[in-house]
Task: structure prediction
Amino acid sequence: MTPVEEQHTEVIDPVRGAVDRTTSSEVRELWNRESAKYLARSAALRDFPLPSEFLPRPGEKVLDAGCGSGNCVRMYREITPDVCGLDCSDAMIRAAARCGTAVQGDVQRLPFINASFDYVASQLVINHVVDSRGALAELSRVTKPGGRIVVAVPNWLSCVSPMRVVMLKLRRYGLGRCRHYTLSTLRREGSAHDLVVRRATAVRKLPTARNWLRAIPTWVGYELDQLLHVFYPLWGGDLAVLFEKRGALGGDEDRDGLP
Ligand SMILES: C[S@@+](CC[C@H](N)C(=O)[O-])C[C@H]1O[C@@H](n2cnc3c(N)ncnc32)[C@H](O)[C@@H]1O
Result:
């Protein structure tokens, strides 16, 4: 066991192997190459504009599955101390280890025992994997009943989708594989794994107005960002969904939180 795994013996699955390195070397290599871009963008990504109810609560045990360079691990640790990042890429996991606990593994076969976490985040990850339903099943498996899962995926209904699809094809990004989702797809796939949608919002991991307009003072860029939020349902490139896992809920557990 690595020192990180030793710290997490209570959640690491002894049967699956402490750390699952089964992700194909092709996929690992792809994300190792992508890591340079993520590290360069890390300052911008820290501003991920999720509403507060999408964030973990103090005292919760948190997993960030597909944590990339660890920006969210660092952000979540400002809220609660028990945060674990997981990623398949060697380069990403090295960067994430500077932000907190980081375990190498595959989101399609998480190396944790059932019901290990109160809150699980997986942003822009399941859209890249071969078995995205299997990944959602795994996220659900490691979440405690009544726990929350935040999944962000490319938003099919965004006005930036056509442009992004063309760019992905040109760059063969994600080995040419990057799914786009609608809310109803995620709702259907989640309900197969005991997950009920509580809230959804369009978000954006594209460059912010602040980054485009670096030349002007930060607060002006911030105000412009706020203005652009008004158009998120149309322009938000990504869709974030807050799921609650069935089990510890009251009588309304099957009722979707959305209109
Ligand atoms: C688009 S990045 C998103 C990173 C981070 N969640 C964020 O929002 O900034 C996708 C991340 O998922 C990781 N990833 C891709 N396939 C994976 C898999 N099968 N298991 C675990 N991580 C994976 C990649 O290494 C990469 O760090």
